[in-house]
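Exercise: predict the fold of this chain.
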Amino acid sequence: MAQDARALRGCLRSRPQRRRKAIERRLSGIQRRAQTAREIRAERNNAHRRKQPIEGAHAMLSVEEARAKARRCYEKRYPAWAVRMIAEALQQADDVACASDRWEIGLKPPTEKEVLQDHLQAHAWANSWRRAAETFSVRFTERSWPSVGTQHVPLKLTLTGAGEIASFAECARHWETCLQRTKAFITKLVAPRDHAAHALSPADFARFERHVSTLVSLPEDDWQRLCDVLRWLQNHPAVALFARELPVRGVDSKWVEHHNRLVWDLGEALTGQPVHIRLKAPTQFRVRLLDERRSACGLRDFAASADELAHLSDPPHTVIICENLVSLLTLPPFSEALGMHGAGYAVGDVASIPWLQQARVLYWGDLDSHGFAILNRLRSHLPHAESVLMDPATLRAHLDLCVSDPTPTTAQFDHLTALEREALSALLSHDQPLRLEQERIPYSFCCEALQKAMGACRA
């Protein structure tokens, strides 16, 4: 642009009058555009300088930044405030921690140097806090500066009470819902309880606090259903039933499954007993009576839940638990014995059958890390359980029948014997861990080992 202007000035000295005026007009336009460009650059530089903090300075805390901090404070504390209300209603305030309902924060007022750098920004910041001070407690202080005189500067915001913190954090509606539902919870569920029979423990209060946010966010219909379910559980604390059987309108298995943590935790806190609502059918365990002289209602091969098996009349002296179903179905007959499919890791449910505590228990699983993990789980419930065909000698005799184990477990085993640990270590010692499945061991070898373990001949 400057070169164009110099070229035009040169033309002015050698051109006629009319041509000279035209060139002057073009030169004037170029000069105006140059001036505009300089002004734009200056404005951009000023704007950039306003955004840059002075070295060593601190940013003033805006109202919106303070609201965000107050919101984080509110979200952290309001569950404890709700639980405090419940504890006070039960005269158990000493059993819960007290979350402060007072919150204050410094506003980081500007220094004299910062005000001089951008007095418009400092003025707007102070005015925003003066407007906030019409509703909330904002402390101002007087600063006397040589360059700008005496100024009343916002210094600190103090909020007292849960309602005021919620209001400043723009969570007033949320807090109102929390208050309403906490009061309804006290009136409908907590107050009618037999306090002498069951005072809420610190663990119960912790359960409430853990679920306060969920209780507040529930749609109104679900909130009412939850209250109805919990009230029914209070009136029938020891009843065991499927979710489908709950006599509460609008509540079905899917609803209970979706809200199961609320129902389980709050139900236990209110009743002092575990909730016995079943969501799924209990695991059915396949059973074979290996003594050919015995039957159960004429049946020798059947399936039943652990609860049903607990009522088996005249239970056998010996139980062989097999990891795989085919192994159970091909067990040879033995006197006074019963075979049972452990259903893998569900073997823990089998261990809940009371008469197994007095029976001799043999466990036969795959020779792999998971087989030993299942044995370890069974033995954590039944320490007297013995393993069969899960020893180093069986592994060595059939090493050629092993296959690689693509997903060995890394669980810790605390209930294995020395021989079992030796067999497991041998399986895991290869570059690719090995496994020896039950079905790959010759049937005759299995029968001989089982007969030896039983210490008796076939019936």
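Check your answer against the key: The first helix runs from residue 2 to 12.
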